[in-house]
Amino acid sequence: MPYDKNTDALREGHEDSLHRKCASTLSSKPLCMVWIGERQARTAYLQTLKREAAWFGFDAAIVTTPQLLEVLQTIDRSAVVYNRLGTRKDESQSAVVQCKQMLDARKIPYFNPSFLSKRDVSIWLHQDDQASALLPDTTSHFSEDDVKEFLKRYPLVFIKPTDGSFGEGIVRIAREAGRVVMAERRGRRVVSTTFESISALAKHVTRTRSATCVLQEGIQLRSVQGCPTDFRVHLCKDGEGQWRIAGSAAKIARRDAITTHVYSGGHVDAAEQVLRGWYGARALTMRERIDQSAITIGRALERFVSGSLGELGLDMGISADDRIVLFEANAKPGRTIFHHPSLKNQAAASRRMLLSFAASLTRPPQNRLKPKLDTSLPKNESGTPFEESTTQESASFETYGSRAR
């Protein structure tokens, strides 16, 4: 959704009275604040979450960084903050750092403290025996010798910016018929460059790419009609502080794309349908393997992240030999998968989980993570959840994919 200054100004006008009352002690209700960037749109998801917060006993507001700073000057009531700052640039601002310091000083809980870097995630998960088994070979060393060593070891390698998003900046390198082919996205196009030797390519990429990149083993993914396919698994904490699967969907790449991201031309389809096309009667078993692997990742990551995690978006794949692999973990996951019609109920459930988790954080420590709230979903007049869905095209399936993510 594009940013519209005039529309946002109108929305802020409707919320001004609530912002002025945020610090008031007159209300006995806890305050739930959804924290966003100043140029970040107040999406349908955020507006729906704000409405539904009342069903969990909250006063609720969507606040920008300046508004949050103002509230924190005088607030004297129970509160919780859901960090939905949309970009790393937003999170690097000094005012954001000041907000976090004030939240800590006032002992106001907030969750999803910051974006995750690919380098940190790799280092952390390699320290967990179960989680490390789900990782492709990855190194944060990015010298010319490192690139050459990786390309000698694997026929397919990805170079990823450690702080990248939406698949931007990812490079795919493949050894083909004695040559080395590098593919990268430029705008909406994929541009390929051929090198006669591994050494020539290694010199090129280390000269033209930032040192803050990771090298990752390429995995031969299963595919849908020849298009590499992986899965986005959305995890949420519930009112007991336990990770639960909020929803999952298949992401099917455009045929010539480097990644499966929708931004790169991919599309979303129902995970169950894709798995049935591949595995038939074994589809449920594979789904359970993916779900359990995702829970393992969530539990491992929260051991290392400083602060509370309330949700995670995990990009996971299945190799041609049925190995479950984690490609990326996102602490500020998008919600594109929930636009698929098959995930309407899961979209609503994910909001309930997050609000239940937020409510648990506002209770005294001895009473936390013991939810007593009614978590039934508020309905609109037609009896359906508030969040809108968009129709996505379905696809037919083949047994094995021939390309990597």
UniProtKB/TrEMBL annotation:
Native organism: Ferroacidibacillus organovorans
The cross-references to SUPFAM superfamilies, in alphabetical order and at most eight, read: Glutathione synthetase ATP-binding domain-like
Q: What is the lineage of its organism?
A: Bacteria, Bacillati, Bacillota, Bacilli, Bacillales
What the entry lists under Pfam families is as follows:
ATPgrasp_YheCD
Q: Which UniProt keywords apply?
A: ATP-binding, Nucleotide-binding
User: Where do the record's region annotations for Disordered lie?
Assistant: 365-405
**Name listed for the protein in its UniProt record:** ATP-grasp domain-containing protein
Q: Which domain of life is it from?
A: Bacteria
Q: Name one GO molecular function term.
A: metal ion binding
Annotated ATP-grasp domain ranges read 125-359
Q: Where is the composition biased (Polar residues)?
A: 377-399
PROSITE patterns per the UniProt record, alphabetical: ATP_GRASP
